[in-house]
Task: inverse folding
């Protein structure tokens, strides 16, 4: 097989991280090839709307204490540079606004952004190969020197590269990897992401000696109504029960098991640990009015998720009083009187100003305004927190903690940044995509100098 091409940077995966890196690299003067397995670029970034993260090291530390220090620091320190980069491409970025209870971020049109990055790459002479898979990385003496690609018609080609960036968006589309690294029953979860992120980055990196981790790190996802498969990607947002932060969630034993106010994404992880990975979400008229049909983030259009789940055949119920909770449908498997008693216990403590058990950091008001809205929920996965280990220069690390020469990774393919916590997937793909382009530029300059006699290596 012949080498078809030799480039400074080969990017595997044309989503947020890969396109950011590719566009920045061509602006730095690098030759770039981008490989995408799908028919179009963009990945899960096309479903997103906000680049956001923790606004300071203190806030990041408070919400993500188990994440790796150097990666957390890099994300917070370089976020503003990432926003400036998006603006430099000509894509409009809105002013900063609060996101969730602790974050800060910017709304932008991710379609416009990924399409703009593609244009920047192609106009600079970069190559974009769609519907192309990566069979293996090329290795020479432990250094990654490119990859062997397989096009849709089965043809194989080798691309030599000074740096290769893995940016395939995680392994959420592979149920075996999910069960191995997320939870033994993680295959039960609906996939709330692009369908192509099936662990290519993970497999390619580990075959080249990369370390992955961390164990038990969890996943980013949201609660959705049980028994309703996603019909199309618009369901990813329409069916996500973000308002769970203000409701109460009970497991099959009729017990609360987490502080729901920490955030729907953390509650989704906690529910994964409960019997049969399902739970009953209960809101009252106040929560319905202020949060179910209110906006999750300012400006977002609210959908009545309760009505939608009901229409689509989800397990939903409507109770005119707490007493009616006694009559939950038997086939759901919850003991109605126990659930009612648990709501009453919560309300009594809340009314008395006492800390409920488990605690509740934010909304501690009782759920005592009828009617009550009941919906059975399950977690859905967007991407795992377990992934390829990198340093703060986006260089892939081997089992010995040293960089695997020539190999970079960014975005949801990477692990270590989040540990049972989350503050922005777009932000990390953006920041580490830019960082990867910087590292590739350094290698490309070094490689060029090494081939010129008389020039000292940098
Ligand atoms: C509904 C929804 C809403 C979201 N909203 C937000 C939000 O508002 N803010 C936020 O911060 N995050 C949000 N996210 C998460 C965010 O989209 C991701 O964290 C981000 O896109 C990750 O970037 P990435 O480059 O790692 O992966 P992606 O953007 O998914 O890109 C990965 C790319 O790799 C390609 N690929 C996969 N396998 C291969 C292979 N073998 N070879 C070549 N290419 C391959 C995929 O097709 C895809 O194009 C949302 C996600 C979803 C699903």
Result:
């Amino acid at each position: 097989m012949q080498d078809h091409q030799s480039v400074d940077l080969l990017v595997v995966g044309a989503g947020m991280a890969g396109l950011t890196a590719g566009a920045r690299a061509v602006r730095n003067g690098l030759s770039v090839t981008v490989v995408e397995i799908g028919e179009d670029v963009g990945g899960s970034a096309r479903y997103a709307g906000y680049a956001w993260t923790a606004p300071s090291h203190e806030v990041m530390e408070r919400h993500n204490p188990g994440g790796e220090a150097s990666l957390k620091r890099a994300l917070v320190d370089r976020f503003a540079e990432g926003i400036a980069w998006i603006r430099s491409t000509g894509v409009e970025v809105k002013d900063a606004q609060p996101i969730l209870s602790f974050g800060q971020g910017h709304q932008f049109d991710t379609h416009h952004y990924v399409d703009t990055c593609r244009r920047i790459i192609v106009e600079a002479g970069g190559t974009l190969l769609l519907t192309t898979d990566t069979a293996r990385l090329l290795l020479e003496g432990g250094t990654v020197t490119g990859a062997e690609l397989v096009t849709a018609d089965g043809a194989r080609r080798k691309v030599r590269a000074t740096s290769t960036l893995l940016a395939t968006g995680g392994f959420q589309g592979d149920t075996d990897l999910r069960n191995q690294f997320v939870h033994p029953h993680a295959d039960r979860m609906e996939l709330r992401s692009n369908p192509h992120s099936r662990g290519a980055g993970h497999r390619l990196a580990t075959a080249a000696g990369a370390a992955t981790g961390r164990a038990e790190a969890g996943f980013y996802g949201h609660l959705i109504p049980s028994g309703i498969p996603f019909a199309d990607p618009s369901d990813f947002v329409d069916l996500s029960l973000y308002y769970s932060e203000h409701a109460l969630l009970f497991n099959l034993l009729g017990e609360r098991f987490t502080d729901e106010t920490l955030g729907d994404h953390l509650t989704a992880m906690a529910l994964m640990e409960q019997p049969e990975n399902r739970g009953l979400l209960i809101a009252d008229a106040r929560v319905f009015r202020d949060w179910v049909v209110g906006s999750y983030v300012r400006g977002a259009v609210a959908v009545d998720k309760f009505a939608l789940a009901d229409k689509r055949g989800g397990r939903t119920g409507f109770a005119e009083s707490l007493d009616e909770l006694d009559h939950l449908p038997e086939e759901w498997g919850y003991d109605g009187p126990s659930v009612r008693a648990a709501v009453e216990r919560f309300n009594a403590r809340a009314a008395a100003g006492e800390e409920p058990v488990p605690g509740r950091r934010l909304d501690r008001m009782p759920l005592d305004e009828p009617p009550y809205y009941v919906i059975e929920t399950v977690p859905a996965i967007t991407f795992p927190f377990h992934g390829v280990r990198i340093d703060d220069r986006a260089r892939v690390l081997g089992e010995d903690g040293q960089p695997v020469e020539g190999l970079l990774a960014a975005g949801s393919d990477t692990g270590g940044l989040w540990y049972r916590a989350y503050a922005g997937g777009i932000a990390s793909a953006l920041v580490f995509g830019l960082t990867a382009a910087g590292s590739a530029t350094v290698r490309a300059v070094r490689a060029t100098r090494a081939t010129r006699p008389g020039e000292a290596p940098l």
The mean pLDDT is 95. The domain at 221-381 is CATH 3.90.700.10 (Flavocytochrome C3; Chain A, domain 1).
